[in-house]
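Hi Y.,

Following your request, here is the sequence exactly as I used it, all 168 residues.
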Amino acid sequence: SIQNATATRKVILSASTIGSPEILLNSGIGNIADLKAVGIKPIVDLPDNTTAKAEDISFWQKTGQGFLVDSIASHLAFICLHDSDPIFKTNNDPSAGSHLPHYELLIANSLFLVNSPPYKNFLGIANAVVSPSSHGSVKLWSNNFFNAPLIDPGLLKSDFDKAVMRAA
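Below is the corresponding structure, written out as C-alpha cells. Let me know if you'd prefer a different format.
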C-alpha cells in the first residue's frame, strides 16, 4: 500500500540502486520532462537523479540482489590499468582515487555453470569493470508506483569502459 510521510528534517533515502531513484521519481523529484511525460507533477528538477552505475543495474536485473550478496567466486582479484595505458591520453580515470582498481576478476570452480563437467579440475574466470565511466538510467513509464521502472544498464557505452574490458 502507498503511505505518505512528512519530514521535518533531512531524510536519508537508501532503497538500492533502483529503488532510490524510483521513489524520488514517483515523488516528483527528477527530470521535469520525464516526469511530465508520465503524468507526475514535478516538485524538484533533478536531471541526474536517474543516473546509476551500469554494473550495479546489470547485476540487479539479473539477480534482484546487491553487489556480492551471494558470493560466487572463491577468489577475487582487483586490478588497475597501468598509468601508461594509452586510454589515459584521451580519457580521465573514473575511479575514486589513484591506484584504485578498474576491473575485477572472479575466479571459481564451476563459475556460472549449472551442471559441472564430470571431471573435477577446471577453472572459471569472469571479469567486470568496477570503475565504469558509463552510466545507465532508471526512468518511469507510468505514474503507477507499483509498475516496475524502465532500466537501461548502459553497459560499455564509453571508450574507457571498453578499453578496461579488453584489458581484463
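The chain has five helices and eight strands.

Thanks again,
Q.
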